[in-house]
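Support reply, case 0932

Customer input (verbatim):
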Amino acid sequence: MGHINLPPPRRGPSRPWTLLDIAAFALFAGVLLFFLLVLTPLGDRFAAGSSPSRDTIISALDSTSAGGSGRVSVDACPIEDVDYMPCEDPKRSSHFSRTMNFYRERHCPVPGETETRLCLVPPPKGYRIPVPWPDSLHKIWHDNMPYGKIAERKGHQGWMKQEGSYFIFPGGGTMFPDGAQQYIAKLAQFIPIKSGLIRTALDMGCGVASFGGYMLKENIMTMSFAPRDSHKSQIQFALERGIPAFVAMLGTRRLPFSAHSFDLVHCSRCLIPFTSYNGTYLIEVNRLLRPGGYLVISGPPVKWAKQEKEWADLQKLAENLCYELITVDGNTAIWQKPQEPSCRQIGKYFCPATNYDDSSEAWYYKLKSCVTQGTLTVEISLNNLPKWPQRLSKPTTRIPLMQTGANVFEADTKRWVRRVAYYKNKLGIRLGTSHVRNVMDMNAFYGGFAAALINDPVWVMNVVPARKPLTLDVIYDRGLIGVYHDWCEAFSTYPRTYDLLHVSGINSLIQDSTSGNSRCHLVDVLVEMDRILRPEGTVIIRDSHDVISKITGIVHAIRWTTDLYENEPESNNVEKILVARKTFWKLH
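Our regenerated output:
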């Protein structure tokens, strides 16, 4: 085929750019950059990258509190960080060992490992103030956590489904698709659920925590936990519903609870290999279960096809720990732990004297495959505790064995009754209303603050600082719930999960008990509090005048509004009370 010869194009001489051309190009580029920064995540990343570092923020805030002129504010995190959990970051965790699910446990960033930048976690697009309790048990706003994976995969089992702008929770689960209420009624045929004996429960691998939600109707407080896994946000859904829950994984370490804390331990298809690693996981359950308490395992391996050996091994190990098998009903097995380990075969599981430890030590504490011989096991057994609600106000045998132990307990209980009444009547705290459901006491001691709220429609996460006296066992003996934690690290929960945070003695949370030096900065604690607090949530801080003055500059830097109050007349005049509220801000 021949080629057509076209004449070359005619080009005139190039025209040099005029000042008007340059101005027009600059205007176009500026408009394009503006839309890129405002309408795309690039702007969020750019803003985050230009945020002042942690050291810069702390230096400016310290200067302000010392009378200097430093002014700084903590910027927002990028929009992709709306569910940021510093110690449960899947990208970071993926680099750790898979053995015993180590990679799914807590792994907090260490100093120098990542960029030391502080920022405020933003709410997702379309976020609304959560549906109030008790309606939240049955429905939540879809846009507050727009993740439909569970609804898609588990909707046929009654977990949850989407209807319009809501996620709806019918109350089902994998092993109880007809609803938690029917399942609980079935368990009540073998366990004294309605008698007042059972008050604290642990639900392992809880899904969206419908079991724990419906146990509340039986006056049973259930601590539900699950890891951050492929279901994305099961614990986030639970907390949005107003059900006690937190993120955890039974892997290589003890769970952060005191020994003999739970009257009932429940596993519904939790898929924990209880007999693996020389029975380590069932021995950890044994550490947590109160003498005389009940263990329920529903699902594999109980009479499960192709898991006959695992089922036989589980029965044998439970028998060796002196557990009595109450019933096997379909794929559900129920055992009762003895009041004291009196059977002969348990002897081979006792830890040797050279391996003795405090069985209530549980903060980053490695799991054991032997049973620590405890004390007072009979005195704290289920049948020897007062029934609920009498146990709330009775000092237990686990209060430090000193002459004044019971007196300190009683004085603490009365003190918090006075203080909570003052909060409600004089400070305008909306406790007792539908505005407050999920509450945390960050320095709980004996749980007096939570006990004073027992008639309000709230639940309280009692946090016992891991470096302070280990009083969490007293809290559980009272029929309350809580965990150990170190406030120089992030808490194991999603952002925006608590309506009210309370802390008495915030400065003590970061002080080294030996040297008196600070292990971290107050700004670290307050930015973490902001992460887990819901928009328009409330913070109550009690501390000395000097500490409150220092905190005031920090809370303004993280967009909180504040009111300062004197403490209640019956208390000394050393403390001040700061009431702060988180503003409802959005990125765009």
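We compared this against your earlier run and they match. Two observations from our side: The longest helix spans residues 405-426. The two ends are 61 Å apart (CA to CA). Please reopen the case if you see a mismatch on your end.
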